[in-house]
Amino acid sequence: MEKIYDYQQLYSFCTAIFNKMGCSNTDADIAAKALLAADLRGIDSHGIARLTGYVRLWQVQRVNATPQIKITHETPSTAVVTGDAGLGLVVAPFAMQVAIDKAATCGTGWVSVKNSNHFGIAGYHAMMALPHGMIGIAMTNASALVAPTFSIERMLGTNPIAVAIPAGAEPAFVADFATTTAANGKLEILQRKNAAAPTGWIQTKDGEQSTDANELKNGGSLLPLGGDRGHSSHKGYALGAIVDIFSAVLSGANYGPWVPPFPAYVPMPENLPGEGIGHFFGAMRIDAFRTADEFKQHMDNWITRFRSAKTVAGQAKVIIPGDPEREMEAVRMKDGIPLVNAVVEDLKVLGEKFSLPFA
Amino acid sequence: MEKIYDYQQLYSFCTAIFNKMGCSNTDADIAAKALLAADLRGIDSHGIARLTGYVRLWQVQRVNATPQIKITHETPSTAVVTGDAGLGLVVAPFAMQVAIDKAATCGTGWVSVKNSNHFGIAGYHAMMALPHGMIGIAMTNASALVAPTFSIERMLGTNPIAVAIPAGAEPAFVADFATTTAANGKLEILQRKNAAAPTGWIQTKDGEQSTDANELKNGGSLLPLGGDRGHSSHKGYALGAIVDIFSAVLSGANYGPWVPPFPAYVPMPENLPGEGIGHFFGAMRIDAFRTADEFKQHMDNWITRFRSAKTVAGQAKVIIPGDPEREMEAVRMKDGIPLVNAVVEDLKVLGEKFSLPFA
Known about the structure:
Helix content of chain A: 25-40%
Number of helices of chain A: 10
CATH superfamily of the largest domain in chain A: Malate/L-lactate/L-sulpholactate dehydrogenase, NADPH binding domain
Oligomer: homodimer
Distance between the termini of chain A: 15 Å
CATH class of the largest domain in chain A: Alpha Beta
Structural class of chain A: alpha+beta
Largest sheet of chain A: 7 strands, mixed
Strand order of the largest sheet of chain A: 2-3-4-11-5-6-7
């Protein structure tokens, strides 16, 4: 059961909620756009379904609605940004803009962020680089759900990586993926349906293969991209580790098992080695390497060649990263965004608390 | 059957062969060290076993032994380097040094390379950053053996990514992996043993799962990390694509199905869109983000915490990327490098051609 909502309606509700938290109009606008980009692009687990979660983090004072976001250290091509415990939805666009500004003057910009919170979908921030004729990169660590290869302990988050690359006549290449076999959102869908998960997604608390989509509640873990050692899970583990180190060890955020949890009721880990959650952003000016025209021509050639690659029987075409999300965004901007009942009910309760009716 | 060789003996043979090709003493030294780093670190498929292959590429004039390697475009933090068809083993260290020099002055350096050839193992070049207190990144495209998700056509190489991160008292974190489920070298080992490959490594020419380690000879393909769509092969495909675009579309090298093949007898693809093979290198100064001391202390904490994570039954410890290769290097530097008979025979034939006996 689901209900369809107009983007504008959800945007108004989100900004109003962020305002009630104490966010400035500017920050409420920035946060609502970042959050709803997930719903538009079909990554429902990371969108408005999490609004209540953000509010709860603010209620327990883990989110600061009026942060002083600042650069604390910099060189011509790098910066560390401190988010002052602000919403990641606000801190991340600030930091990505710093990366873009640095790229404008010296070719590339790289920003590591500490004391932030969850930032929505990585792809949204990476895509900020596209209108500037730049490649955008965004990654973040997250609270530990993933066991490294050979381990039964949750040590890494789903730690996504997004890379957005501009093209010419073709739409941009936009990869945005968790460094696990399956993102947590996919598991949530199976949980709602009471369906089994494929092997290679999760393990039990003892490290046995499991197809129980609820295994995490029993102490199990998500598995790194690859699934098991025979299918190179050590590569997914390495990718998640690189995201963790770039996002948090470079900046001074918490890393590994110490990353603060998203649910406000889950206690914070003890003996924190850093501040908040960490992100990492990059921007590379295309014309810092070759003329934008040449690059766009070859990028178009790359995309059309891959899209026309011979397919396996039953598949219409090879997908270019970003194709499904862009197509979804066009549909949902026009026809509206479906929200499942559980999310609608949750938003109604949230709205009542703030005297902001959600219909 | 194998025979053990002293590192110094192999080094002398390699430099002598490179000299015979016309390489300067300096270039022969650089190339031999880069090549043999693979043998030392246990990545036997990419080491001296390929020496004959490099010589054959020189014989058919695809490798230029006296290249004019040059920066053709640059900004404070970026450069494009043209390899002038030189050995990748020589071009890559040149380009990585440019990245390191740029990082020294403006925080980070990023170099895309065109008109190069195969560069050995990515990890060797990334590790060049470590003594400078920098994070090193290296990637390369390679001739197409990998089918994107939903495709039966070979469109990408095994396109490896290496990231080397310095630590304090702990050894550096060094990840170096192909963006496929299995590197080609692992397949070669199974081929020699006539053993079956696990599912998820390869598909037939029609896109069916296969366990035949020789399937590539029948028109089959390697699979991107993940293996199939249900296990997120689209993520491995995206990673391989990013490596291809950063290495070749940014620089002006060949990309996708047009990347020149390593075996000299395989004809070049037609209508090449660029020059040679492409690489991409990055260097990030640690103290462009935070003090080196702080970073090293937290990196040590990261490494010791992960290494002591609880293991599944039967596993002694969680491995930090780079641990096995570093341990192998210590053993092989001391006890020698084992070469299988086929490689020994191949090197003997090569030596005879150049009047350089290989015992």
